[in-house]
């Protein structure tokens, strides 16, 4: 799935943004089709391994968990929750998604 976005369609400005462009496009790709959080969670689980690692690294960045590029392996078996999805979308895109009555 490919999503074309431009700086003028992203919350905030390029000079006050703490996220890399590939992180923004990764999250934008997940929310671009109006999917619910459970659907987004399924999309993340179906990511190719490298993209899955990038998303896990982004979750760690948003949560303030330090990772070391090239020194510390990000494992594919790390569980991502609906709350993680909400947090990443809120932090990266400045958008809120509400999760109701889901058990993931």
Computed Rg: 13 Å
Shape descriptor: globular
User: Quaternary arrangement of the chains shown?
Assistant: single chain
Fraction of residues in helix: 40-55%
Low-pLDDT stretches: none
Strand content: under 5%
What is the structural class? mainly alpha
Largest sheet: none
SSE order in H/E notation? HHHH
**Helix segment count?**
4
Q: What is the averaged pLDDT score? A: 75
Terminal CA distance reads 24 Å
Molecular structure report:
The chain is an all-alpha fold. The protein is 45% helix and 0% strand. The longest helix has 15 residues.
Summarize the structure.
With 104 residues, this protein is an all-alpha fold.
Tag the structure with descriptive keywords.
mainly alpha; 104 residues; single chain
Secondary structure blueprint with pairings:
Layout: H1 21-31, H2 37-45, H3 49-63, H4 82-93
Helix pairs in contact: 1-4, 3-4
């Amino acid at each position: 799935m490919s999503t074309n976005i431009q700086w003028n369609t992203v919350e905030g400005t390029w000079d006050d943004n703490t996220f890399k462009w590939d992180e923004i496009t990764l999250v934008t790709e997940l929310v671009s089709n109006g999917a619910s959080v459970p659907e987004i969670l399924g999309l993340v689980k179906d990511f190719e391994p490298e993209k899955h690692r990038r998303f896990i690294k982004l979750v760690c960045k948003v949560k303030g968990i330090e990772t070391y590029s090239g020194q510390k392996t990000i494992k594919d078996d790390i569980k991502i929750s609906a709350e993680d999805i909400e947090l990443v979308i809120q932090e990266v895109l400045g958008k809120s998604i509400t999760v109701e009555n889901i058990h993931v």
